[in-house]
Design goal:
The protein is about 35% helix and about 30% strand. The protein has about 100 residues and is an alpha+beta fold.
């Protein structure tokens, strides 16, 4: 399982651990990933996603999963999240046409 956020696209960063004597050794900075179940109001389903804690706060701030996905750029979403976004747009277009 990759260490990548499904919504924001945040992944592992590489840097240095610097000792007191200024010796630099490679280390990685892992994102704070949490497993959550988010519900889509328009689709009437719940989705299990692995996202960062910061993305979870952003979802709450924007008013839910639907609003977050509609504002998000599809390039940074995972394939699962992009499919949810396409289904959401299709459902919203159907309800607007009716």
């Amino acid at each position: 399982m990759s260490r990548r956020c499904e919504l924001s696209g945040v992944n592992r960063q590489i840097g240095h651990k610097v000792s007191h004597s200024n010796i630099k050794t490679k280390r990685s900075f892992e994102p704070n990933l949490v497993n959550v179940t988010l519900s889509s109001d328009a689709l009437g389903r719940e989705y299990k996603l692995r996202i960062t804690a910061a993305a979870l706060r952003s979802v709450d701030h924007r008013g839910g999963l639907d609003q977050y996905l509609l504002k998000a750029d599809e390039a940074e979403l995972s394939t699962r999240a992009a499919k949810i976004r396409r289904d959401l747009k299709k459902k919203l277009a159907e309800t607007a046409a009716a």
